[in-house]
Model the fold of this input.
Amino acid sequence: MIKVSETAKKKVMELMQEDGFNPTIDYVRVGVKSGGCSGLSYDLKFDKENQDGDKVFVDNDINIIVDKKSFLYLIGTTLEYSGGLNGTGFVFKNPNANRTCGCGESFSL
Done:
């Protein structure tokens, strides 16, 4: 399961509406792909449909879909949003990551 913090929820809803998505029925697709300075990087986008094999979750009124391969890397992750002095953007708090890069956008296991 993937959790969504209150600050991430507000930002996700705002961005979904700006991009023409409906936060009550559309999805946030969270995934993992090869790349980044630590070997794996996070992928976050909006989607109107789930695919065969996707895991579907609802947390804090946000519909989340994760492909089967990425799910194993993301179990227990919390999606947060940071708007502070150190940068603005979504942050993944992943208990499975052994190492993360300075920007927080990539990790390794």
